[in-house]
Amino acid sequence: MNKRILAALLFSIISLNVLSQQDKSIYIHTDQSIAPIQTTMWGVFFEDINFGADGGIYAELIKNRSFEFAKPLMGWSIKGKKIKEGDLLILNRQGSPFNPRFLRLNVQEAAKGDVGILNEGFRGIGVKKGLKYDFSLMYRQHRGNVLLHVEFVDEKNAVIGSTLLKLASTDANWHQQEVSLVSTATAEKAKLNIWFEGNSLVDVDMISLFPSDTWKGRKGGLRGDMVQMLADMKPGFIRFPGGCIVEGMDLANRYQWKKTIGPIENRQLIMNRWNVEFGHRPAPDYFQTFGLGFFEYFQLAEDLGAQALPILNCGMACQYNTAELIPLEDLGPYIQDALDLIEFANGDENSKWGKMRASMGHPKPFHLKYLGVGNENWGPQYIERAKLFQQKIKEKYPEIKLIFSSGTDPDSERFHYLNNELRAMKADIIDEHYYRSPDWFLKNASRYDSYDRKGAKVFAGEFAAHNHNKITGSDKNTWQAAIAEAAFMTGLERNAEVVNMASYAPLFAHSEGWQWAPDLIWVNNLNVYGTPNYYVQKLFSTNKGTHVLGMTKEAKAISGVDGLYASSVIDTVKKEIIIKIVNTEKTTLNQTIVLDGKKKISVGTITIIDGDPEGKNSFEQAKNFSPKEQNISVKKQQLVLNLSPNSLNVLKLKYR
Hints:
Layout lengths: L2 H21 L2 E11 L7 E2 L30 E4 L8 E5 L8 E10 L5 E4 L5 E3 L4 E22 L5 E8 L8 E8 L4 E25 L12 H10 L3 E4 L3 H4 L22 E2 L15 E2 L5 H10 L3 E6 L19 H15 L5 H8 L10 E4 L6 H17 L4 E5 L7 H12 L4 E8 L1 H6 L13 E9 L13 H16 L4 E6 L3 E3 L10 E3 L4 E3 L1 H10 L5 E7 L5 E3 L2 E8 L4 E8 L5 E8 L4 E10 L17 E6 L4 E6 L3 E9 L1
Parallel strand pairs: 1-28, 2-12, 12-15, 15-16, 16-17, 17-18, 18-19, 19-20, 21-22
Antiparallel strand pairs: 1-24, 3-6, 4-5, 5-11, 6-11, 7-11, 8-9, 8-10, 8-11, 13-14, 22-23, 24-26, 25-26, 26-27, 27-32, 28-31, 29-30, 29-32
Helix pairs in contact: 5-6, 10-11
């Protein structure tokens, strides 16, 4: 054979081998900025489900504090050896449509232990040793004087903290008094005893108890450890108040934001729709006091530096329940509620609703930018209503970005109808929901690769990977589900030009009061822990970047190639390149990464979560799945990684 031909052949073989090796490398094109990433890319979705608000993040410890539950004494027990028939009565005061019921006690020559009431709290009252608790009530004394003995009792009925409160006024008006007590021990399921001593006819209402360690120390505020879990995520937005409670079982049961603002005692309690939704998880004591109302939601978003994203009813009740509709000609008040909400959030102090906001202690606007119209509504009846909302809101507030529902699932004929209609309407953002198997999330990681770049943006408003139905409760929050979500999220991030917002759902669940699982964060009366899914969400949210970078393997986007799913971003403020790689294989993968570009990189860190796909976190092992960080070095713009099985890997590389 001619030596030249042989040399050429050998060169070709060597070149093919080199190219083959190169093709197996991951290339990060550090100078190739594909699209900006919105500050709202990763956020949180809040709904009062699973006792997420009352009995959860809203730190009130007394259940049925105003006797407005369907059964007025639910949560309360009558105590004492000198109580006769008729000494304790539930009455209604006229002229108060919001909070009419109160408890009247006829206290006759009573000592401690003679006449009392006990509250069981929400699956017990969690109290911490050495912590101060603020007790208050509204009352009016018709005659005599009464002294209140207020005390915590633990699971064994031992007193673990007490104080006294002497009611000061004896006129016919309602008054409020408060006093503090300190717990002398920690108990997850304490109760609150109130003993009445003296001789008096007294009415009591709004009996309340809050820990002093609320978020930012606000009296009557939110549970600090639960809010801290959100603050640690650095969310770009908070979507509220739901979820299906926006729709209600019927329209009378829908969420009405105007009834959730103003003085606490004037906020009208309603039954939470999750009270009766699931026969296998009944919750007859689940109501909404609205102590966490729209003002508090806006305030929380502001505290966390997140955009507020309220969702309003569009004149349609839940279509899985009553499917009740408001006729189009009667839709005006619903649209007006939306216009008034924008004024409440953004109006100046001289406007009607801006003045209301200022009276609650926030004279400056909240700078609302987003508003959702309806939740998981569908059909032509939804489109008809969506068009009217869009027309009226855009006429007055063209700058507000409106979010519309694409129904309950991502694949059906119903979805495609809504998606086409909403895009024809030139909707700003379309809300897509997916509760599917881990396998669905892996197969759909490239879902948005082919979406129209110039049309409506996407809000992945509710998503979670659901394992098979044999697993229940917090056991559903497995690493298998979380890693599938991580793989899917690389596809969302890679397509940030299309996907502007995303949030896992639901957010919170009480370990003894849940109706729906899986959930991002689990709580009991004393403790809170993040699931593996939580740490996935947190890693994406705290490593958001500012722009998407090009990233390929074998000249393709990395979405299932060799079991890998990946995305890369650049943070032009922090001067970092951030790479997220998910290995869904059962074996370790040796992977070379080539940093293709002019940016010089020498050091960085890698954060890893990995482990048994069936594993999970718990109250006892809260950090079983949590990020572990180590330093890495970059040589000649390359690095070699050993990607452990079933792992999420986040690399942060400093550049100059």
